[in-house]
Design goal:
By secondary structure, the protein is mainly beta. It folds into 2 domains: 124 residues, Thrombin, subunit H; 108 residues, Thrombin, subunit H (Beta Barrel), CATH 2.40.10.10. 8% of the residues lie in helices and 32% in strands. The strands form 2 sheets. A 6-stranded antiparallel beta barrel has the order 10-11-12-15-14-13. It has a 6-stranded antiparallel beta barrel with strand order 3-4-5-8-7-6. Strand 13 and strand 14 form a beta hairpin. The longest helix has 9 residues. This is Trypsin, alkaline C. It holds the Pfam family Trypsin. InterPro entries: Peptidase_S1, Peptidase_S1_PA, Peptidase_S1_PA_chymotrypsin, Peptidase_S1A, Trypsin_dom, TRYPSIN_HIS, TRYPSIN_SER. Keywords: Disulfide bond, Hydrolase, Protease, Serine protease, Signal.
C-alpha cells in the first residue's frame, strides 16, 4: 500500500489531476459534498418531461466530466436530454446545473460486453470551482490496484435492487477482488456470454455482501484515498456476496481521457 502513497503526484496536463500509479449505494452512509467535491449528479429528461436521476459523474476540468459510456449512449440518448448538478449532496436540490454539449465514448464501447464503458463529456458552459466543486484526481495509465484493497464507492443510486434512489449522497467501503476470480464467477453466472470481466475492469465487494453500488450509481467513482481508480459500470444484482460490483479501470484509459478532455 505504501507504493500507492509514495507515487502520488498531480500532473497539470489539460487541467486534469492524475495519480501516478447501471448503479444508489447499498449499505452506505451519508457523505457531505465537501468530502467528494468532484462527484456530480447526472440527470436524464424522462418521457414525462421531468428530470430524473440517471447516473453519477466526476469533474475533470471546468468543461469536462468523466462517466460511464452507457450513461451517454443508447437509443434514447441525446445531449439535450442530459444535465449535471454539481456542488450538492442533496438529490435534485442546490448546487450548480450545467447542460451537456457533447459526449465522447471510448471507441471500444459496444465491442465486447461492458468493456470500454467509459466516457468523457463536454459541458455547454464551465463549472465554477468552489469548496464543493473541484476537479478529481485520477490514477495514472497502467496502474494495477492490488487485490483486497479497501476502496470507496459513492453515489445517489438505489438503496436495493430496483428500489428507490437515495435523497442524499452516500458512500461505502468495499474491497477489490482478484480479477481472474471475478471473471470465473461471472463465467459461471446466469449471463456468461454478456457479463465478461476483462483486464480493463476492477471488481469489488465485501464479505457477506450488503454494501456496494446499485441502479443509478453508474458513472460514479471508485476511490482509493480520494483518487479515482474506477468508474461504476455493472453487476449482477446489487451488493450481493456472490457477484462483485464491476468498475471500468481508469488506468486502462487515462491517456485517452487526458487526450480527449482538452
Amino acid at each position: 500500500m505504501a507504493s500507492l502513497q509514495y507515487s502520488l503526484f498531480i500532473l497539470l496536463l489539460a487541467g486534469i489531476a492524475i495519480h501516478t500509479e447501471g448503479r444508489r449505494i447499498v449499505g452506505g452512509q451519508p457523505a457531505p459534498i465537501e468530502k467528494y467535491p468532484s462527484i456530480v449528479q447526472v440527470n436524464a429528461l424522462s418521457i414525462l418531461n421531468t428530470w430524473v436521476e440517471s447516473c453519477g459523474a466526476n469533474i475533470l476540468t471546468t468543461r469536462y466530466i468523466l462517466s460511464a459510456a452507457h450513461c451517454f449512449s443508447g437509443f434514447l440518448y441525446a445531449p439535450s436530454r442530459r444535465r449535471v448538478r454539481a456542488g450538492s449532496a442533496v438529490l435534485h436540490e442546490g448546487g450548480m446545473i450545467v447542460y451537456i454539449e457533447k459526449e465522447f465514448v471510448h471507441p471500444n464501447w459496444g465491442r465486447l460486453g461492458h468493456d470500454g464503458d467509459i466516457a468523457v463529456v463536454r459541458l455547454r458552459t464551465p463549472l465554477i470551482y468552489s469548496p464543493v466543486i473541484q476537479p478529481a484526481t485520477i490514477i495514472s495509465q497502467g496502474f494495477k490496484i492490488p487485490d483486497n484493497t479497501p476502496v470507496v464507492n459513492a453515489g445517489w443510486g438505489a438503496i436495493y435492487s430496483d428500489g428507490p434512489t437515495s435523497d442524499i449522497l452516500l458512500d461505502t467501503t468495499v474491497y477489490t477482488v482478484n480479477n481472474q476470480r471475478c471473471s470465473e464467477i461471472y463465467l459461471n453466472g446466469p449471463r456468461p456470454t454478456q457479463d465478461i470481466v476483462t483486464e480493463n475492469m476492477i471488481c469489488v465487494n465485501v464479505p457477506g455482501g450488503g454494501n456496494g453500488t446499485c441502479q443509478g450509481d453508474s458513472g460514479g467513482p471508485l476511490y482509493y484515498e480520494n483518487i479515482i481508480v474506477g468508474i461504476v459500470s455493472w453487476a449482477e444484482n446489487c451488493a450481493t456476496e456472490t457477484f462483485p460490483g464491476v468498475n471500468a479501470a481508469v488506468s486502462s484509459y487515462t491517456d485517452w481521457i487526458v487526450a480527449t478532455a482538452v
